[in-house]
Amino acid sequence: MPDILDHATDLEMRQRQSALDKALKHSEPEQDIRDGMVVCIDCATPIQPARLKAKPNAARCIHCQQIEEQRHGR
Ligand SMILES: [Zn+2]
Q1: Are 30 and 52 in contact (CB under 8 A)?
Q2: Distance 52 CA to ligand 1 centre (A)
Q3: Domain span including residue 44
Q4: CA 60 / ligand 1 centre spacing (Å)
Q5: Which residues pair with residue 33 across a beta bridge?
Q6: Cα–Cα–Cα angle for 25, 30, 34, nearest 5°?
Q7: For the chain, which has fewer Cβ within 10 Å, the N-terminal or C-terminal residue?
C-alpha cells in the first residue's frame, strides 16, 4: 500500500512540475487595461484589436513584442 501511495505522490508531483514549467514558459505579463482597452505595458499604446484576437492575453503591442523577443535572442 505505501508503495502505491508513494508512486501516486511522485506522479502527481511530476505532473504539477511539468504544468508549472509549461505555464512559466508560456507566461505573459499581466495586461494593462485602461478604460476597457488593453494597452501595451511597454509603450502604453492601445494594442490592436486584431492582435488581441490572435492572442487574447497579449500584454505588448506587436512592436514591443518583437523587441522583447529579440532581447531574448529568438
Ligand atoms: Zn508597445
Answers
A1: no
A2: 13
A3: 2-71
A4: 5
A5: 38
A6: 155
A7: N
pLDDT tens digits for range 11-57: 899 998 888 777 666 667 899 999 999 999 999 999 999 999 999 99
3-state helix, strand, coil in the chain (%, to 5): 55, 10, 35
Please give the tally of structural domains in the chain: 1
Residues lying with their CB under 5 A of ligand 1, a single-atom ion: 40, 42-43, 61, 64
Quote the CA–CA distance of 30 and 20 in Å, as a whole number: 17
First to last CA, the chain: 48
**pTM (2 decimals)?**
0.62
